[in-house]
Amino acid sequence: MPQRARLSRRQFLKSGLAGSALTAVLFTTGSESHMNQCFAVEEENPEISKHLLMIDFAPESCGTDFIQDTYFTDDQLLKRELGKQYIGPFKRYLLGALYKGLNWTGLGGTLEEQFVRNNPHYAIASSALSEVTDHGQGVKHVMWQTVQKLKGDGTGVTPRIYPIQATENINLEQDENGNYILTASARTNSVIHALKFFTEQDIVNLSWQLGKIGITYPEMKRFGAYRKETAVESLRQLFDVCKTFPEKLFFAAAGNYGDDIREARKILADEWPPNVLIIGEWMREKDTRGTEYPRNNVYGADLYAENTGFWEGSSVSTAIISAIAAYLRSFRATHDEIKRKLLVEYSDTVRFVPEEKTNDSHVNSAQTASVFRLKKLLGARYVPEAA
Question: Which of 40, 44, 194, 228 is deepest in the core (most CB within 10 A)?
Answer without folding.
Answer: 194
